[in-house]
Batch of 4 targets.
Target 1
Amino acid sequence: MTPEAIARAVLDGHVAYREVFDEITFGARERFQQADWAGAQQASTARIECIPKAVTDVVAALALDPARDLERWRAARAPYTSLIEDRADRRLAETFFNSVYCRIWDHHDITDANCFVHSAFERREPAEQPLLKAYPGDDEGGWHAVFERILTERSYELPWQDLERDVDFAARALALSLPGVPVSACDLELVTSNFYRNKGAYMVGHVDHPEGRQPLAIVVLNDEQGHVYVDNVLTDEDGLSIVFSFTRSYFMVRAPEPARLVVYLNTLLPGKKRFELWSSIGYYRHGKTEFYRDFLAHLEDSDDPFVTAPGIRGMVMAVFVLPSYQIAFKIIKDRFPPQKDTTRDHVMASYTLVKRHDRVGRMADTQEFSNLRLPKDRFDPELLAELLEVASRTVSVEGEQVLVKHCYAERLMTPLNLYLEQADEEALREALDEYGNAIRQLAAANIFPGDMLLKNFGVTRHGRVVFYDYDEICYLTDVNFRHIPEPQTEEQELASEPWYSVAPNDVFPEEFPRFMFANPRIKKLFAELHGEIFDADYWKSLQRAIEDGQVMDVFPYRRHRRFASRFGSITEDGPSPRATGGTGT
């Protein structure tokens, strides 16, 4: 096979992948209208899996010999660059080329000679289709006229539950965020395609006004009775940032020119890295490419050392950070203590589960790397010595480089146990409430964290509590929750060890307080907020709901921000905050 034929075969594989990706994505609107929430979850998983399948197909078709065909592969890079230079998705095409190379050559020798470590193209993106639709304001009709036009134009086959009410609520919410600003001085623009995730449809855009640009997201829900309604309008960067959080599932959005969409989203969310935004719209492989490019650039522009991550050292993972970059690198240790009944393969499978599962705003997304090479002189000597001791199968020194054969990278957060040590009374109560909400929402999404110690949860910059230690994670429906049996004899009552049989998947929630909290005051406060978590019947009720096919509501804003709470009861039969959270926290 000639280099030109290799290039064409790789591009054909990329095109096939994009066709599957787009087909799944374009089905999001119909799934939303049908309230097909189980189908939405299945589609999300299928879309994640479509790129590795496409790479597998290309690798099989190329049948290259890693020992003999590297030069032909290198020669294919130039014709491939020519083939993709006019494509609107050329950056994604570069990443597909990289993925094929890494599959064949097992992530060795990651250089620009072999793949696209750096992009072959300038940052300027081609513009072929309109990205935004304008809805200019005018004082005569006010924001009511603007939102009536938006909701009417972007209507679904389903009727609005109460269009006049929703227009009024949306207009009031935006007006409250722009006090004293004339509507005629504002220009509202929305991305032409809606963003779909879980049970929500999001119209994302901005409002330009005399003092600057303000992000905007209109959240539309399906009441599952054949009507749609506006549940919220988000009007600030923090609110939109949580919507595009690394702890949530990827959006489904039509993006013929995805790089332009990411650049635009970055103008709304300048505090986010572009690699996070690429991942947020489903291109998680390219998010990894962009992360690596950004990380290499940061290494060049910084001089602080890699150091051990703050907090209690884990029994399964060795974790280190580059403080100036706010990313944690996690390496599986060579050996685990006896109390950790797990294997390396199980840990890796757990991280894959999280990648594919609905993270409901409570689990951190990760990037997985193989054969990552880092400069030795950037490592704190004590950290390097520790890594070589506890993870010698994974970490080695080769000249002036440290080779990490396998690791995970995720956003650095403040460990919850450290956060609580510094928290005042109000912050303590808020964090413990968040901790309980995280456990509850994970459970309602069919995830049991396993090890629920405080140190395994982190606090984000928005104050949300997120789970990030996945080595004991499992599906909630695979757990057998039990009450501790009542002792029948004095010997049983005084026994130091359980006198009753315990199977590997048995869990006794009554025991949670003993290992979750060392501080009696914190234990008591948590019990006041979330005492149900210590009751086996609570967990069993969640299992029954999951087995009955219920899909929980979790939206990225607090209950009190929903229109039903802010502006009063919507209708007698309309939406209201639901017991399962419906709303994020």
Target 2
Amino acid sequence: MSSPSPKRSRGRRVAAFELPPGPWATLLTELRQGRVLLRIALCALTAVLLVVMSQGWDPPPNYRPDRVPQRDLVARVGFSRYDAEMTDRARDEARRLALAVYDHNPQPLAQLRAKLLNEVSDLVSVEGFDQVDKDLWAAFSPPLGEGTPQPTAEEQLEQFQRFQEALLPEEANKRFRQALEEAFAAEAPNGLIDELPTEHDANRERIETRVLGAPTFGQVTPVGDVRIDNVANRLQRVLAQKLPSIEVADRVFARLRPQLPVTLQLNRSATEAAQQAAADEVEEKFEEFPAGSVLAAAGERLGEEELELLGRERAAELTGRTLSERLQRVTALLGMYLALFVVCGFYLARLGQDFVNQLPRLVTLLITVVATAAAMLASHGYHTQAEVIPLLLFGMTMAVAAGQVIALLLTASLTLMGVVAVGGDLADSVILLCTSTAAILALDSVRTRSKLLIVGLLAAVVALLTTLGVGTLIGQPWASTARLALLLSLWAVIAGSVMSYVLPLVERVFAVQTDLSLLELGDPTHPLLQELIRRAPGTYNHSITVASLAEAAAESIGARGLLVRVGAYFHDIGKMLKPNYFIENQGRGDNRHDTLAPAMSTLVIIAHVKDGADLARQNNLPECIIDFIQQHHGTTLVEYFYRQETVRRDADPDAAEVDESSFRYPGPKPQTKEAGVLMLSDAVESASRVLVEPTPSRIENLVDEITKKRLEDGQFDECGLTLEEVRKIGDSLIKSLTAVYHGRVKYPDQESA
């Protein structure tokens, strides 16, 4: 015999008493779980991706191209802008001031000097004036002044004799040659030109002369130094200084002046190269805009000029941002995103547990958020307010996949993220929120293909009115506001049209079924239903009746009646594999269970759940319909065969104890309200068939009895049905069954069945 346990002292009893953990301790315990940490990490990664996509380290523009500023937009930092016009003017000026290149051919000057020496030698060597070439001597005669008479023959003779005497001596002739050579070398070293040619579009004050064929660089020469008139004047002065007499100098110059040749020729290609080189040396010119400069005036629509200046000012501001400033903004933006994720996460944990518990659905949701944010950023840069299209698509997608309440929360959060990312303001937030909210609230169900177009039109009307109202409140010009309102309306209509095309993809990705898909799935011509009619017509009739009862009951509590109806069509398709083992398909006196043990009969009956689920998967039925097949019996007891087995056990004392779990369906229990409605409707419809006199009171008692059994058996513990909703379901079933089994008028010639 074991000794009695020692009694604990009062202090030990008090010390051993512990209160249940508080909310913070419970939260900390949850956060330590690996599955929770994984989901937090995925959300944090998504927030980081959103920050990176929006370049959150730099602030967005502080202006909207589609909005008229209500105040002057001034430069926050100084910046400069490349001035193409000023640069072109400076380069044109450089080309104009560049030195034109001329090729100098000294050969004509050398030939002129040699010719002049020969002619002087001829004049000096003749013996008398009468032997002189009169034309040549006339060429050596300087022009007479106005009113001066022609010299007489005696005067001409005296002039010729003086010319000969001045140059006849050998020494004098030698000095003449030397003087002539020095004059040409000193006064015409860079060539001669009469006038600048018309194609000379460079510097007109100086030129560069290059000796033709010489490898050396040219000589920069003032244009005046090579003009023939100026060179002739200088030659005249030099000759007057170096020749024996003024008279000789005048006569030599008179012969020389008309024969001075043009020795400079414009080198066009070299000139253009010099001009281009001069233009290339000119630095780019920039227009300076110091801090505080007005870049756009208040009340005026932003044009291309203003937008360019604002863009350059922003680029200059971003260039000057420090690492510390960027880190501060990234931290603030990431904190805001994480806060929104926390709020949405807690809300989803309470209402949309599928997105939290099922990791694939959470990953799909996060990918959708990232894709929508990326599309909003891209479309914002493409066109005015075009970011409303991906936002509306996201809102409608979430309304289809998760319901309107969750869609409103997620869309509002994404709107805030998008507005902050693109640099919007309160007005943008109000417009986007109202437009997306209208689309979500209008999308309660999709029963027709035109529903999404109607939703787009309704969102367009709301966008139009909201934009006009907000634009008026913030003082925008009416024309600009009306244009933006019409544009937003167009985007909303486009979003509704696009959603009608992507709806099948949304259903597949998020594993949901819209009413439109359910209507198509519930078509009686579906191959599985046709096969059910052929193999098990009694089961098909039972399914049709259950569908009618369950749809009305589901709608009485605000559940999806159409989903329950379609689920009821398929809930017993597993019976078609062994139809004769089910009472509704058996004829009179034909019950195959009479030859089977209760345990075996139970296995056959229970098997229709697994068989139905397998058939559904083979025929690609959606998971929500498969859930109805698996859950419509929950873990209920197959009472008829269980009682038979119990009676057999009582009659045989040596038989083993009856294991109740062997006579229960494998489950799971109903996980949704719709599955709970179908369970109760199926049970009530089957039981009502055995009522001898299905009066309203008997129907009511039957429904109450079955409902009570399911409640006591805990079948509704996991589907979220409240007692009030169970009562409403029962009332609906009573009303529907009473209508089915209503009394009929007995005609005189009618016999009782």
Target 3
Amino acid sequence: MSPHGHPLDEAATPAMNPTDDDAITLQVLGPLKARRAGAAIELGVRREQAVLAWLAAEARPVARHKLAAWLWPDAEEADARSRLRRLLHSLASRLDAQALQAGRLDVALSPRLLAHSDLGRLRALLAAGLYRDVATLDAAAIEGLQEAAELARAEFAEGLQLAECDELSGWLERQRESLREARKQVLARLSGLHEGAGRFERALQAAREHVDVDPLDEPAQRRLMQLLAAAGHTAAALQQFERSRTLLREQLGVEPDAATLSLAARLHAQLAAAAPQPTHFEPQPVHYARNGDVHLAWTSFGAGPRDLLFISGFVSHLDQAWDAAGPAAFFAELARTHRVILFDRRGVGLSDRTVDPANLDDGVSDALAVLDAAGSRRATVFAVSEGGSIGVRLALERPQRVAGLALFGTLAKGSAADDYPWALTLPQLDRWLEQITAQWGQSAAIEVFAGPLHARDEGLRRWWARTLRLASSPRCMRAVLRSLALSDVRELLGSVRVPTVVMHREGDRAVRHEAARRMAEAIPGARWLPLPGQAHWWWLDDCRPVLEAIRALPA
């Protein structure tokens, strides 16, 4: 690494030889260290360490007068040269007589010491993998680039500072920036190499690391977006665009450039084209099932050979299910392979509006009443969000009625506890209830449920506001949500024996990813399916994996 020319000059040092047991090894990447035969060598004062780092980076003779002037900028020339002689003598005594090659006019590290430095190893790896034509690279060179990326992750001479030496401080910062630049170049090449070989996961990993090194690098952001889309994660690619745009606005006060905006527009079009397109689906007749004194609105549609019972989250309205801005396209696609049974839970939608707190027992008996009314003896259960606990109880208590259980964006306990930190505490839930009921009838909390990418969609905002107005009232909703907050099926998960898949989007803001993963781990044989994206609503982002997972459950 040099302050002149390429950040990591191709005039490389030989690779470190691990069999040379008596040699001094030098670490410059990270905290400055030297070892002999496994034992640490004390490196002395900061100026000695600075000289060692300088000589390792230059990898060639350095003029004495330059070193002296940079180390003691305020001293007379004769005094600075005298101090340098004493410093070099001290440094040589700490290492060995052959470690330094000190001439009358200049000084350098010995080739043997350079060969046993991590910086020398990095240069050799770059020469073999970065400074050659891609067509000439073999598997060893590619794996060497992976090692180079790890070596370059460190900071050059980490922690070393000489505030009183302006020139030297500036030089140190340039070396550190050069190392970051070298890592970016390595990661960019690795990403391209892995993509060309069809190793998309490794290509994505390298692209993500590249963006982590420099989040304001727009070409790197575009590269990551393109790879995400190529791997089938178009929604995640657009979310990456949103993160990049936010950073550019906050840190530089600028908008993404034309190439980035053009890519985002193409990805939006791809996502729209990939979404299930609703056939002309007229609202289906609504029927009522009775469970005690409560009337439950339900409907069914689709001609698939298998039944599917959908258990919603805290709010629903059957008539709103057919709006194109809502889940109509998803349900239309699902109806190709299933007879889909929808119902509004007690207290919401077209079902009886009761403010009596419903519990899980009521939820299970209500679901069974709907299945009986629909003439379904056995169904796949697809339960989302707060409906997940009902789905678990139903599968546990009536396994003969449940062919398979698909859980999406759900959690095992409705509120936090000392041994369950993945939900809101009861005081936090009360505050959230105050916020959402204060905005009832508007698009309350849509950023949480839809994610920031979709929350700007005016059609979706209008659909959500209308759903809230039609589905419930603030008073009813307080009762519903407080009851859900008391649900807890953690002790039951280990007894579930029906085939189960647990799905969750990694950026979900409504339910924490860890809560769903722990559910999957607790249910014997459950399939854990993490998905890219931020939408809590199952029909947004790329919903094809959700449909495929439901269809993969046994009949």
Target 4
Amino acid sequence: MFDVLIRNGMIYDGDGGAPCTGDIALNGDVIAAVGALGGARGVIEVDARGLAVAPGFINVMSHAEQSLIADGRSQSDIRQGVTLEVLGESWVGPLNDRLKREWVERQGDIKFDIAWSTLGGYLEWLVEHGIACNVASFVPLLTLRPYVLGYENRPPTPDELRQLEYLVRQAMDEGALGLATALIYPPDCYAQTAELVALARAAAACGGMYISHIRSEGNAWLEAVDELIGIARAADIPAEIYHLKAASTANWHKLEPVIAKVEAARASGARITADMYTYTAGSTGLSAAFPPWAHEGGHQALVARLQDPAARARIKAEMSTPSNAWENLYLAAGADGTLLVAFKNDALKHLTGRTLAQVARERGQSPEDAAMDLVVADDSRIGTVYFMMSEDNIRRQIALPWVSFGSDSASVSAEGIFMKSNPHPRTYGNFARLLGKYVRDEKVISLTEAVRRLTSYPAETYRLGKRGALRDGYAADVVVFDPATVADHATYDNPHQYATGVNHVFVNGVAVIKNGEHTGATPGRVVRRS
């Protein structure tokens, strides 16, 4: 007698082995048996005949930091079979009192008090308040640098560097997976390579890895990849490229040289990997269309510059001028390819779903002036979707065996507070889109390979211990889905649509999705580096 018995499913073990029909038994929070368990019984029994049974999927690049505070059910991801959200590019910790005040002041629709100061404290707080999924995290430079240097564009002093290294080690002691950077955004873009190597060494000494939204995905993409590989070698640390992509038409041809660089580095012994999402548009803030110097001093300093005629003129000129010195998302996407999706100010929410070009025409302004005025009026970064990538490149990247998958988005519910803005459709469909469009329909990779790269591959890369495979003694995170029907439905115009085709999801042995519906259970835990 087992707690849960999943019968007659087509088992995809996560390790890349050939699928076979069999049974999976769960006792408590672990897998108790895998195979032909004919005479066994379960307190809960699931008939998986005609369905695939796989380890729970890992979202290797999640932005569920705030959405899980608002709603711990993690519906948009858990309904796609995601049982683990890996955080770390954004604000989670460590936080001092100054940063806590700043974060509260900059909150949008989701309001909350900050009752933690460390990365570990944040993760434990989530679990205490109830989450359906498991959570793990890197420690972000996005909080480390402001914690020590504020928003100053300069190298740290020797004492400041020691403090940064200490904070990295502290987070690693709390179970962080490694160090994360976002080098196109202030203040991370102010960090020079030597500083990144020093902090990566601190993470490496604790068994962690380095993961990065590299300094460029466009005009200086090749150089940015070289920097990541150089950091990996200098710090003797595994390194991963966040959301691999070639941004803007002029750079699409650079994918093959980037692949060649990574594969040459891997062949020489460097431990380089990458992750991606399955869409041709990215998403970040409208304020990312402004040059880095405009952000020095933080958000309020940016707003002040956007209202100063001389600074505005300089910002406008640099927005309109091609450059390799910074990542110009406005030029990469164009005003017609810049979709406004999330506002803080209720008076501006009617603009949700409009392009920057449309809003500029309605206001009788240039797109650059409209962008600056909108950020001032909303007093926020303004959630924005940028259309920049090639569908052919998406398929090429999916086929790479060293690429895993992350949504680069929150995990939300199609109700309540989340309906006040439009997320990128990857929020609801990234993983179902892989399994439906690219695996079943277009056959870019096999289902066996897709499951491997959603499960055991990132679990091994990130050192997650006994997760990511259907083996005796491994964590009882299991997804049962229909390969013939799994599909994404979210669009840019109507993103709040759940994916379908996932029948059952177990997290730590507890049913979270049953017959395609959320049970309300919140058995999620913190997953630390093993």
